[in-house]
Amino acid sequence: MSERTVWQFSDDRGQLSTAGRRPARVLAYVQAGATLWDHGIRPSAIFGSDHDDRAVPDVAKTGSLPLAGVGYPGAGSTLDVETLLSCEPDLVVAVSYGGGHVYGLAAETAKHLEEHVPVVVVDVGQARTLAEIGERFTLLARSLGAEEPGAAAQDLDAARQRLRALVAGADGHRVLALSPAGQEQAHLARPRMWPELRVLAELGVGIVEPAEGPGLNWSTVGWAEAAALRPAVVLADVRANATPLDELRAHPDWSAIEGAARVVPWNPEPVCSPQAHARFLTLVADALEEAGR
Question: Which residue ranges does the record assign to the Fe/B12 periplasmic-binding domain (predicted)?
């Protein structure tokens, strides 16, 4: 490290970012910003993807991040370099789903952004476990001055142990993860493609595996086919781009699912902190416990 470099971080592209002082104004993709907040790093601004509203952040993705005082320049490929730089960041934290491609920004925008400000990219794709993703965020947060609260790891360990004990020897607990897509269909998650769902499977939770077919991350089916799976617990995508559950109340197949299953709100772009993961596992354990009564 040179005399003028007091901060550096090597991201998941293998690219080294450096600065003459520790970054204090972090502009982050919403998922990354919410994760850093759980580590005690408050982003100065967050941005969304093409799935998000251009005017306001998706609260399903922001976790415990208090939005008052946090800037939001917008979302998706319509964001340009000038708009992002108007937030006056000294560091941008983005995510990737593989190949080092910055998620949520046009390729040219991401390229030219790095000409003005350091950009750190964390890979949150299916090639990594949730623990590995979380560790990368932990290392980044520590480089920015965070100290990990000891209770967070303890709470996560307790949540994991509770869930593992709850499903040990259980017969027939069926958990279905889905994203509502209008009145006609639903996207069923392929568990192996989502790190959070893989954790549930590793702990012994019975996750419904959709039939093979088109769709890398999801299998798209009609609501009648989803209802026929007769899940005990449904993890329902509550992001802004999913159909709100309130709009499905009158749908007979969704009503059948909701009447027989415990419904847990699910954010497929999870906050990758021990605190957030412990909360999610606790919600799933509570639902399974109620379903087993």
Answer: 74-258
C-alpha neighbours within 13 Å on the C-beta side of residue 75: 15
pLDDT band at 150 (very low <50, low <70, confident <90, very high): confident
In terms of domains, do 219 and 124 share one? no
Q: Is residue 1 in some structural domain?
A: no
The pLDDT of residue 1 is 46
- For residue 271, the model assigns a pLDDT of 97
Query: Does residue 284 form part of some domain?
Result: yes
Residue 137: both structure tokens together: 């965020």
| Cα–Cα dist 74/57, whole Å | 8
Note whether 98 and 154 are same-domain residues.
Answer: no
- When pLDDT is cut at 50, 70 and 90, the band that residue 213 belongs to is confident
- 45-96 pLDDT, tens digit per residue, is 999 999 999 899 999 999 999 999 999 999 987 899 999 999 999 999 999 9
Domain shared by 164 and 232, yes or no: yes
- Domain end, chosen from 143, 160, 194, is at 143
